[in-house]
Amino acid sequence: MTPLHAVIASQCQMRVLSKCVAGALVLALVHAGVVWAQVPPRPTLAYSPTRAPHAMVASADETASRVGLEILRRGGNAVDAAVAVGLALAVTWPRAGNLGGGGFMLIRKADGLTVAIDYRETAPATATRQMYLERDGTVTPDASLVGYRAVAVPGTVAGLALALRKYGTLKWQEVVEPARRLAAEGIRVGYPLAFSLRQEGKDLLRFSESRRILLHGGKFHEEGDRLRQPELAQTLRRLKENGPRDFYEGETAQLIARAMKDNGGLITPDDLKNYRAVERKPLVGSYRGYQIITFPPPSSGGAVLLELFNILESYDLEKMGQASSEKYHLLIETMRRAFVDRVQFFGDPDFADVPVAGLTSKAYASELAKTIDLTHATRSAELKPGRPNDFEGRQTTNFSVVDRWGNAVANTYTLNGAYGGGVILPGAGFLLNNEMDDFTSKPGEPNQFGLIQGEANAIAARKRPVSSMAPTLVLKDGNLQLVIGTSGGPTIITQILQVVVNLVDHGMSIRRAVEAPRIHHQWFPDVVDYEPYGLAQDVMAALVAKGHQLRINPNVPYLGDVEAIAIEPGTGIRLGSSDPRNANARTLGY
Predict the structure, then answer these.
(1) Is 2 a catalytic residue?
(2) Is pTM beyond 0.85 here?
(3) Residue of 122, 156, 396, 587 with catalytic role
């Protein structure tokens, strides 16, 4: 029995045994002189996953998960449920759920057919590579982040519609209605949404429509308030009655184009009319006998993830131990090397030659592994991109769905920043993205996530910006084992890496694997982000001695919001885990 099979099959027993083992372990460590860090207040850890025999939905919001679950109960398949969840999150989780953004959907049908639907936003036709630069060559502050000039052509409606038309079973009207009803009747504002609006919604204050709707006229919604969004309900009604092309050629398109013209934005009626979601071939790799299926460019997430797995295969992580300084040092050095390649090589494959085969080659990874010193940190300034051609041959949300037939969907979509660029479209009620910041405003200059961008990702008309989103599936012997994705900008890649390593190398249950502390390194800035109380003091001391600089990022202290579903071997039971880092997230099944 493989490690992941064994872990998933024994989760109930592990929950019982952990109480006995934990007590003895604590006593042993105390006598050994180990100092324990105080654990901060956080949602209660529950190492037994959500269990369901037939179907399951995991998303960032409980109400949206319930929408998906009802679709599944009514006989809809995983794609039907995913589309309904995506539309519902535009109402219930406005910091990332959207109509005005874009993303990636990875679909695997029960018969093995797998497809990647790319509905990433595109640059308007009049966009230019220097549009955010001053005359002296400096980047104009906030120009690619806030307001109408930061908006790329949205793809979410087109992408969800394409997925439903080709791979769903229900009618468009049926999957739109739950979201329309939620917007019209209103939702209860929970603590996570109220907190997020206060902490991350500062750009909403700049725009009257955003301030009126989401900030309650500037007073901020309190926990327990009812948030009604009548303009968004009207937009969803139009989409329901007139079909998804209303967003690109109908009344909704006219509202977008008029607002852009009146406020200095670049999107025109032709940009909207010409937008298309596209199907791409998923990337396929492996890690210690497991098949990894993930998203291709324009996402960097999938290829970088496979590169990371390939490098790690040269080492025995199980022997190193799950929380050892040796293991964390190796992870950091592996991340550092993969992210320098991300900067150099990734762009829209329709505009740039991305050496995916080389980057995901086992031989290339073996060469990179040889450059890692297991006793000292590499200085990022001294590290250069590799030669993958020689081997040729944050504010996002994810939801995962598995239906009773075994069809699976992992979908990650985004507005880019929290609440996008702060603009709610007047008369339409939905937020617009600030996705233009994911392009290279100036080579060598970091974006809002601190990522340095390369020439391959320079702004060009109708081009799709590079992303880190990485909806991913894990299989063993052709059988689905895991559906996973997360939010978090560039940390998306390293989060998924660590969850899978926890499962495969360290024998964790799905719930433990998701809840375990995470780290992140992205080449520059040359610093290791770790979560509060996530590393033991002796581990931190050992990493610093090796030359690493550690920090807790004050803006994002906890890394991501993983939404994962595993399949129990033998029984087929769905085992779900929504990340406790998001108190609003829920996994529901039947």
Answers:
(1) no
(2) yes
(3) 396
